[in-house]
Amino acid sequence: MRIDNKGVSLIEIMMAFCILIVAILSISGLVSYGHRGTEKDFRSVQAMQILEEKMNQLLAASFSKVSDEVMAGTTKLSISKVLFPGTGHEIALGKTTAFKTEFNVTAELEKISVSFGIRPIEIDNNYEFAKVETYKFGALTSALAKFDGSNNKKNRYRVIKAIMRVQWTEPIVNADKQIEAVSFIVDLEG
User: Fold this and answer.
1) What is the mean pLDDT of the chain?
2) How far apart are the C-alpha atoms of 105 and 50, rounded to whole Å?
């Protein structure tokens, strides 16, 4: 008489358990990797929000305030300290901590010499409003040059270029990251 053994041996149970452990460890590694990626994206979003806030604060100030109080006779300036302390437009530059990450905020301001003038359209028998190829422009004369920016007259610098930067260090990989935004402050009052 033959006995049919229909059970599972201890070796089979241990092998199944080892396979289960390897699968769980692999899945937990993927979850951890995904979590690190999400945290990295979150830091980038935080940096963009800080950048936008600081740039908006700077652009809320008038051209004359930025030109007189910040630039103070210089044509190019890098700033890492507070701008306009004690005012409605106070901009705290320097180190900002958000969600366990330290962000360094700096601004670079540069006065831009601006040139512009007017060239009149010469209208003759061939001129047609709807056809650009029929446009002819006259010469730029000194009477039509409104401001050429080539000398130190009153309104030489009417535009300030503002570059705002936010820098931080990514943990684990220890890589420096930076984002920046460029805008212009224009004297529309003068």
Assistant:
1) 82
2) 8
